[in-house]
Amino acid sequence: MPLLRPSRLLRHSIRPLSTTAAAQANVIVGASEVKGQRLKGSHWANETGTKFRNPWSSFKMPNTWQLITSGYELATSASSDLTLKDAKNLIPHTTPTFGASLPARDLKVTWLGHACAYVELPAEEGKDRGVRVLFDPVLGGGMAFLGMGPKRESLSPCEIEDIPEIDMIAISHNHYDHLDIPTLTTLLQTQKSKHGSQPSLFIPLNNRHTVSGLPLADERIFELDWWEGRDFEVEGVGRARLVCAPSQHFSARYPWDRNRALWASWALQELPSSPNRNPAKLWFAGDTGYCVMSQDIHAGSHPTSTNPNAPEQDVCPAFKEIGEKLGPFTVGLIPIGAYHPREVMSPLHVAPVDSVAIMKDTKCAQAIGIHWGTFRMTAESFTEPPEKLREAVKEAGLEEDIFTVYKLGESRAHKVEQPGDR
């Protein structure tokens, strides 16, 4: 299997960060390669890199009976959840400005619901904007195979046509609440008609077949394994690095293709032109679990707690590895919802207490809670995740604003500390 053959990007305003126009810079972070070939990683479940697994003792896939019972609990709890019935009013929202009035030299993030986030890196001196990346865009009304599945309960904060020009799209995995073909199709068409160009698309390994029908040239699609990345220069804007990193999850678009495509998190880094400037770094978790738990517990009894009575339970080691290899990060986008019942969901979806632990493991200076308040996917109250997050942050002894949530559609600026700021 070739290691990301050099190719020319067709987008007129983005070119490879290299000495020649046709070459493409690869970034390998702790990954193994021999003569341009990928070597089998511990997360590969076969020899060809077309089936995958979670290679840690922190993961255990729920059995069929657990999934059936959790589905029943979801159905019964949804009928009595008053917050769900008034979700459009109870989830705080605002019309997105995409950070237009925020300081251009800061890292700017806009939350567009669920795991969808619009990110703009700091602008170079004298530039109007920085490199822009859109993560897991899903702006439709529902998601599932054959239309069966949760519908969008809260407002969609904007129309797809309202999204400003973007340079890259990054997808964490192929579940319908993270990879939405209708959203991507409209987005790509709109970007081309409004701006005369299209963004590049980054996907984890073996997801290309899912996006092959999009109105996007194959040369603009980059399929990466864990610890592989790309350096880019957006002409007239700036430079950035995007690295595919691990997460603890699974994949499936259909009942018969489980784990045939890789899942991932993404590390985004500014590559400033000045060697004296500290780069902005953002980590997007996508969708992930942390450890196998049998009950809903909080920081005092979590496996990462210093409490001597805390359970001895393996936690996913990948997050500390991400922090060591790619961190520290200015900000992390970390899921906080879709966690109940814990004995079923904990290997796949974090609860807020796990999210706080992951923030520490990955060395995020601040974090934003995502993956909540949009689709009713599990049995906890629709508005519960932010409440549990506040509890977990307090129990961990952290300042309240270290890990918080945005309003739907809200943008905030995150300052990147520079030499001499203190």
TrEMBL record:
- The Metallo-beta-lactamase domain covers which part of the protein? 132-292, 320-372
GO cellular component terms, semicolon-separated:
cytoplasm
Its source organism is: Cryptococcus amylolentus CBS 6039
Q: Membrane-spanning residues where? A: none
Citing just one GO molecular function, the answer is: N-acylphosphatidylethanolamine-specific phospholipase D activity
Which terms under GO biological process does the entry name? N-acylethanolamine metabolic process; N-acylphosphatidylethanolamine metabolic process
Q: Which Pfam families match?
A: Lactamase_B_2
| Protein's UniProt name | Metallo-beta-lactamase domain-containing protein
State the signal peptide span: none
Superkingdom of the source species: Eukaryota
